[in-house]
Amino acid sequence: MVEAFRNYLRSKAAFTDAELEQLEAAAIPRKLKRHEFLVRSGEICHYIAFVVRGSLRLYRTDEHAEEHILRFAIENWWITDAESFRTGLPSVGAIDALEDTQVLLWSKESWDRVKREVPAFNALENQLAGRNLDAQVNRLYAAISHTAEERYHAFVAAFPDFYRRMPLHMIASYLGVSRETLSRVRKHTGLY
Fold it and tell me: Cyclic nucleotide-binding domain: from which residue to which, for each copy (predicted)?
């Protein structure tokens, strides 16, 4: 599990062996079974997770018990409920495993410590946070300005691994369309 994380870090920045060991020592390895929760709505999100193997989703449920997926995470992706993790307040969303999943977890305390003590990791985290913000803005813009077909094409182009691994109803939720609408779009475009 740790070797996959080392390979990921080495592909992103120049870390010394001592820095890699420090980052690994602060991590808690955990295995999640399919449908197992990392955090439930109403709980405090105590961890940020790096996905070694498998997939997770962050979602919220509305007053009609309809799920709205905010993000997916597969291998070499990070996921947390950022607001709950940062503030220590209960999570509005939930994170669960879509398949058997292996993650490395960092508590708020250990995360803040390694960011202080490993400058290259702090720089990487800042870079990832900026890219995440850009992606959120672009997704919001697409949601209010693009058709369902345009959003689906963009999703397939940007995330071919997600598209192949996620159930249709979850992709529809992520795109903000009904499953029926997505089925029509897929049939019309021939992109299955």
Answer: 19-114
User: Residue 103 is which amino acid?
Assistant: V
- Architecture of the CATH domain 2-116: Sandwich (2.60)
Instruction: Quote the tokens at residue 6.
Output: 């080392």
On whether the CB atoms of residues 19 and 118 are closer than 8 A, the answer is yes
Tens digits of per-residue pLDDT, 110-167?
A: 999 999 999 999 999 999 999 999 989 999 999 999 999 999 988 988 888 877 788 9
What are the residue ranges spanned by the domains of the chain?
2-116
Query: What is the DSSP secondary structure assignment for residue 13, as one 8-state letter?
Result: S
> What letters, b where the CB count within 10 A reaches 16 and e where it falls short, cover 35-57?
eeebbebeeebbbbbbbbebbbb
pTM of the predicted model as reported, rounded to 2 decimal places: 0.91
